[in-house]
Fold:
Amino acid sequence: SPSDPGLVERARAAKEALGDRVFILGHHYQRDEVIQFADVTGDSFKLARDAAARPAAEFIVFCGVHFMAESADILTSDDQQVILPDMAAGCSMADMANINQVDDAWAQLEEAGIASRTVPVTYMNSTAAIKAFCGEHGGVVCTSSNAEVALHWAFDQVGGVEGDGKVLFLPDQHLGRNTAVLQLGLSLDDCIVWDPRKPLGGNTPEAVEAARMILWKGHCSVHGRFRKAHIDRFREQIPGINVLVHPECANDVVTAADMVGSTEYIIKALDAAEPGSSWVIGTELNLVRRLANAHPDKDVHFLEDTVCFCSTMNRIDLPHLVWALESLVAGDVPNVIVVDDETQRLAKIALDRMLALPA
Ligand code: 13P
Ligand code: SF4
Structure:
């Protein structure tokens, strides 16, 4: 069970036995029972940056999902091993873009004479192969905390936001649209959705030619459940409530909110909030519950009526963490994330471009 004192004690003992040989990274959506053992917690950007800073540990145990552990493997030195306590901790959004589909989409854009004026930008929530695609084709990785600067950088490669160059944004249509419309001043009409199952993504040649943002048809199943109607109801019930959501939510939800940002941004916003203020938060439930517990002087609500965990983040539970740590103590290295050399080399180009963006 989550509070099993035997497991807590075993995790503590194994971590202590490993000492400096292990470094544990924890994403903000992780369970309380797991996050308590993290040496560093963060949003996707902070965790990538901290992995890149190469703590002098033999093993990095990544409490998060597969694409994050892959990115950590790409950014750490070759003699460091990245371990994901449960290999089934994937991400349904990352699974929505596979490299064959993306290669095929790019070939269609080349055929239409558009690829040379297009920069691919992938959200961190994508496979290493897609990050490698972006590295190879002059593109960049972004996270929810730097999507605006990353998109500016990308448009600057093809004549600026005011010009007629394009961005192919993978795989989260919502982060791409929200950033383009709310932060770059583009319009909803500048955005088209690319459905990989249809020729030209389901668009006419004219529509693709006119578009500025070509948005891959992907989304987050957790954030996709928040509705504008939920916001309307909270505003009616609690006048003056502050609405804070993650940019993976749909555009009408983000537009109706007061504040939008990454998990790290959400945490800082609550830290800075006035005692007695009311908040409703649209992001994963482990984080919202933790924030409610950490701020008893504030009125903190969850923007949904039903339970809304990220099921793959939740796969990393205390039994899996204990198993991973005790295996390391016993001399076995379980669940090592291995990205092949060529994919790593190209993906690192796109990740390094992100890490070099102005903060
Ligand atoms: P951030 O922590 O970067 O905001 O990302 C949220 C998310 O969905 C990670 O999977
Ligand atoms: Fe993927 Fe959404 Fe879960 Fe993040 S919250 S890991 S985007 S499914």
